[in-house]
Amino acid sequence: xxxxxxxxxxxxxxxxxxxxxxxxxxxxxxxxxxxxxxxxxxxxxxxxxxxxxxxxxxxxxxxxxxxxxxxxxxxxxxxxxxxxxxxxxxxxxxxxxxxxxxxxxxxxxxxxxxxxxxxxxxxxxxxxxxxxxxxxxxxxxxxxxxxxxxxxxxxxxxxxxxxxxxxxxxxxxxxxxxxxxxxxxxxxxxxxxxxxxxxxxxxxxxxxxxxxxxxxxxxxxxxxxxxxxxxxxxxxxxxxxxxxxxxxxxxxxxxxxxxxxxxxxxxxxxxxxxxxxxxxxxxxxxxxxxxxxxxxxxxxxxx
Length: 303
What we know:
This protein is an alpha+beta fold. It has helices at residues 4-29, 33-41, 45-59, 65-78, 82-95, 102-116, 119-132, 139-155, 210-215, 235-247, 273-285; strands at residues 225-232, 252-257, 263-270, 291-293, 299-301.
């Protein structure tokens, strides 16, 4: 009996140690969400996507509520297609209302709705953020968005469809509706013909062709248009987006506008609104949320 006890105890200890080692090895091989964040901060977006997919397949089902929310947010951020990111943000907002990352999901849903031109849905998302997340630092950004929209609708109501169509102007009637008083004939001395000109006058220079005068482009007066990828009250969120934009090959910068508190991530500069819109279409294809801003001259660098 005394000889069997150490043997049984030793066997049990070996099994426990082997089981713990195997469990530790499995967990060591599975990347953590902190590693994903570190790769994103370093601008290694593709590697971050790969690690997150490994974590998602191995750990999501057994993860706790907080980890699931964090993983959903990371996956939405790292998705290169806005159409694929939107259901992830919506899932985060619906399945985890009041969670620590739901405020950002609502803000992103509002931005995506604005890109589609659905201003009413964007307002609803921002209203939910303001009502249900009273302690969120993103409330400042949401209020600034609403104020900007209200100001834009006030200044350019025709772009928002808020004004009635203007009536068409009637064509002007032909003149001479009533006969005027007859004019006195000019004195005879003023009706004599002018003396003839010299027989060989110097030729006058040919005028420019009308087409050339009409199509001559005027040089741009400023480069006040730019593309904005996001505006944040927390600097680390702006840095995150900045790294993603640069990793995608964009010439991105972090700035503030005037004395504002928001840190904005912007791309390039353009002399006209139409050129900015053409470039915006290309940036949208890269999976970013983009808006055209017209206050580049008020930017203050925020390195």
